[in-house]
Amino acid sequence: MTTPEVIDCRGQRCPLPVITLARHLPELPVGTLVRVLADDPAAAVDIPAWCRLRDQEFVGQVDGPDGPGYDVRLVTDPRGRGSVTTGSRNQVWADVVGGRVTVRLAESLDEQVVADLVFLGADGLQRVGGQ
Asked: Tell me, what's the pLDDT at 88?
């Protein structure tokens, strides 16, 4: 079982737990499990709704010795870098650096990259690597 990163929002009222979560996510790598401790009853609705709006995975509510917690898995990078695709043989992820979007396609995350494509705005796509 993965030990979650804990963000303590106990004592904060809506919308502060969601804002605190959003501010911490850019510091974490894609795939990180985050537990938001929040005793505001609105968090039970706000955090899952925020996850749907921001393409993050709401894993579930946890009641523990520290009070109510809400587990969120970071599946897309809030800075616009990276994504994780599950349930498919092919894996696709993207990086945004300096206004350029690089899209990578691989048969799986452990296999060689099949193609690197860079989106150059109005200039279209340019293949820059892979097979």
From this structure: 46
